[in-house]
Amino acid sequence: xxxxxxxxxxxxxxxxxxxxxxxxxxxxxxxxxxxxxxxxxxxxxxxxxxxxxxxxxxxxxxxxxxxxxxxxxxxxxxxxxxxxxxxxxxxxxxxxxxxxxxxxxxxxxxxxxxxxxxxxxxxxxxxxxxxxxxxxxxxxxxxxxxxxxxxxxxxxxxxxxxxxxxxxxxxxxxxxxxxxxxxxxxxxxxxxxxxxxxxxxxxxxxxxxxxxxxxxxxxxxxxxxxxxxxxxxxxxxxxxxxxxxxxxxxxxxxxxxxxxxxxxxxxxxxxxxxxxx
Length: 277
Prior knowledge:
Elements (H helix, E strand, L loop, with lengths): L45 H22 L5 E4 L5 H11 L4 E5 L5 E5 L5 E6 L2 E6 L4 H6 L21 H13 L8 E4 L7 H11 L4 E7 L1 E7 L5 E7 L5 E8 L10 H18 L1
Antiparallel strand pairs: 1-5, 2-3, 2-7, 3-4, 4-5, 6-10, 7-8, 8-9, 9-10
């Protein structure tokens, strides 16, 4: 017979006793989910409106073919008249994903409200690209802003699991083949120290691409200088880190527009065109 002294006590701890004030205190819930809402641009210039609508129609068609696997399609916004360019900016708006691409020239990327329709702005560059992700974001991603030094990173007191994690990431990086499923190392589930994180950051280096995806909270993605390795961090709407990972892949899915997103963007663009005509 089990002794009663080995059983856990009952009637103790939070929630077991009545609240003397009679009111329950609840944790603040996240809020601020960003969702798509249609926006109809205004234009008093009929010629500018027609010019912008013609390019929007081409973008809708491009979304359809890219959704079916065609290569990315680009549109030069600098070819528009200033008035049509303003209409286009109003129609495209700003979506959830933005990117900063280091290099020459440095490029700022902003996804429009239509998923997979990317606006790229730089010196002598004002364009829209229809793609799961901009080509430049892929080709520049792992160009070193700070080099990947691997095991030559400075050893400091407090290291625990970082060398083993590095060995796993470097092995997956070297053997990665395009199209493979992403290999994820979830630091949130692994024991590690602050020194581990600093050492891994130095060992893997920093690439040329930084991505912010805003939705229900934020996701911050940083390319490492080690090929195919990305640092992916999820924050809730109160900016608390809730998931900290490394991914070995072509590009993390959180930064990509899926084929379904592109097909949906074609429909939404045509809805806007119909409302503006």
